[in-house]
Amino acid sequence: MKRKKWIIATMLPIYLFTILFVICPMIYMVVLSFMSRAEVWGVVSVFTLDNYRKILEPLYLNTFRESLQLAFTSTAVIILIGYPFGYYMGQLNEKWKKRMMLLIMIPFWTSSLIRLYGWIIMFRSNGVLDMVLMGLGITEKPLKLLYSYPAVATGMVYALLPFMILSVYSSVEKMDWNLVEAARDLGASGMKAFWTVTFPLTLPGLFSGIILTFIPSMGLFFIADILGGNKIVLVGSVIQEQLTKGRNLPFAAALSVILMVLTSLLIRLYRKLFHTKEIEGLV
Amino acid sequence: MKKKRKFPYIYIGLVTILMYIPIIVTVVYSFNASKISSVWGGFSLTWYEALWKDREIKEALWNSIVLALSSCTLAVFIGTLGAVGMSKTTSKFNDLISYLATLPLMIPEIILGMVFLALFSAMGLPFGMPTLILAHTTFCIPYLFIMVSARLIGMDKSLEEAARDLGATQVRTFFDIILPQLVPAILSGVLLSFAMSFDDVVISIFVTGPKVNLLPIKIYTKLKTGITPEINALATIMLAVTILFVLLSRLIGRKSANQ
Predict the structure, then answer these.
(1) Which residues pair with residue B199 across a beta bridge?
(2) DSSP chain A
(3) Nearest C-alpha of chain A: how many angstroms from B72?
(4) Could you tell me the CATH number of the domain that includes residue A156?
(5) Do A121 and B216 make contact, defined as CB atoms within 8 angstroms?
(6) How many structural domains comprise chain A?
(7) What ipTM was assigned to the predicted interfaces of this complex?
């Protein structure tokens, strides 16, 4: 009996913390999204659906559309670059696997702001990229890439690529290569063996990579802010604006609820498809 | 005979170079004497000197370190104890809580920032270091919890049973047998959560107070307003620290693998 008490005591902090700072805030967020805002700052507990109705206004609907579009574009590019990378990386020998891991961990651990900063130097007019391109005679005038859609997309891809690489890599690592060999022995071409054996087996990694890149790319407002100026507005940017400038907490909550619903749908889908609780390559 | 193909190596090499170009550019220009970042004005350490004299940056750096250290320490206690406790009991609440405790890793940071802002203002907490620590601890716990849980699953139970059979108390067994085996997992969790806390902008921006300056927020506002090469110098130093961190975690990883 005494043993039981001791163990319960060890779990108490994590139970308390999770209830207080994960469950409570989430519930409060949902409640908040149905409340009205007060005149100046704060909320009044009057039930309303106005916050959700407001999202349907063309202005905000458009933001959602643009945000999703950017998320789709960046995720597609991330898959195209990251999947082959993770796939090839998983086939290197042990020594090189470790070296590559190190090379990927360094940008991954470096402050994302600092990595963005490098792109500012590259993209600004008469910046490094312009100098190189004009020096090679490919372009004549500065491209004015900074504060444009491609700049923001590049920033997103760059910031989130490591997540995809690591997820796919961990999937490839776990794969049983004998299966591929068996397929080859039975006469499948390299292409066929890849699409019928390797690809389905690495699908969990690919999908968890999508979760880890698609969702953040709607929320990372500082990338849109720094590389896109005021031109590209994400759902994340609107939430931030509503909290800091608009002082409209309920509306920000409603937007967050929508984003949260999207997130949980994707995670659910992942669990349904692959019958697993853990998201590949998360830590 | 397996044919050696060159394409994978070329591909990996090219993408890696692309990944490093912005970083290299930043480092190179931190030694640029000219203030205009596209013109090379010769080698100089001016910007490092300017950085050294910048009191605001130093204060922000200090705050960020204090914040990351406090949140990590709290997360170590909560995460490790929780993982150990849950490994010894079976309850359906355990599954639920461990899912919810790791939720902060999966949901967009902006939502976390938003809900913390809402919660703390509803609780009437004054915004500043305490609110920052609470928020950061929440997203540091999952790293520790996941790392330690994973280690506990792979651990040899017979040592622990032997200690108990020989009459060691539960507490003694924990400190003498379990904890030493958990050290590498805890250390890698600490390194990861320290890096995440030190780097966080999105959540901090919402829960910081008017008096607390943090390094990532400082960099963010500087990037939004005017860009000075001082930031390059700062970036280079932070990069060096990161590399040191990564190497350190590799060393810990290797040590634990040897055990």
Answers:
(1) none
(2) -HHHHHHHHHHHHHHHHHIIIIIHHHHHHHHHTTSEEPSSSSEE----SHHHHHHTSHHHHHHHHHHHHHHHHHHHHHHHHHHHHHHHHTTS-HHHHHHHHHHHHHHHHS-HHHHHHHHHHHHSTTSHHHHHHHHTTS-SS----TTSHHHHHHHHHHHHHHHHHHHHHHHHHHS-HHHHHHHHHTT--HHHHIIIIIHHHHHHHHHHHHHHHHTHHHH-HHHHHHHHTTT---HHHHHHHHHHTS--HHHHHHHHHHHHHHHHHHHHHHHHHH--SSPTT--
(3) 14
(4) 1.10.3720.10
(5) no
(6) 1
(7) 0.82
Burial of B141 (0-12, 13-18, 19+ CB in 10 A): buried
| Overall residue count recorded for chain A in this entry | 283
CB contact under 8 A, B137 and A17: yes
User: Cα(A35)–Cα(B225) distance, rounded to whole angstroms?
Assistant: 36
With a cut of 50, say whether residue B219 has pLDDT above it. yes
Instruction: Chain A: give the shortest CA distance to residue B113, in Å.
Output: 9
Domains and CATH numbers, chain B: 55-258 (1.10.3720.10)
Q: Is residue A279 part of a domain?
A: no
pLDDT greater than 90 at residue B72: yes
Neighbours of B123 (CB within 10 A): 12
Answer yes or no: is pLDDT of A283 > 70.
no
Q: Which residues of B touch A14 (CB under 8 A)?
A: 78-79, 81-82, 85-86, 97, 101, 141, 145
> What part of B 209-248 touches A (C-beta under 8 Å)?
216, 219-220, 223-224, 227, 231-232, 234-235, 238-239, 242-243, 245-247
Domain span including residue A98: 46-274
Q: Which of B107, B116, B132 to mutate to test the interface with A (most CBs of A within 10 A)?
A: B107
Question: What are the pLDDT digits (tens) for A98-153?
Answer: 889 888 888 877 878 888 888 888 888 777 788 788 888 777 777 778 888 889 99
Residue A38 has pLDDT above 50, yes or no: yes
Task: Match 């916050």 to its residue by tokens.
Answer: A51
Count other Cβ atoms within 10 Å, centred on residue A66.
Answer: 16
Average pLDDT over residues B175-197: 88
pTM of the predicted model as reported, rounded to 2 decimal places: 0.85
CA-based nearest distance A268→chain B, Å? 12
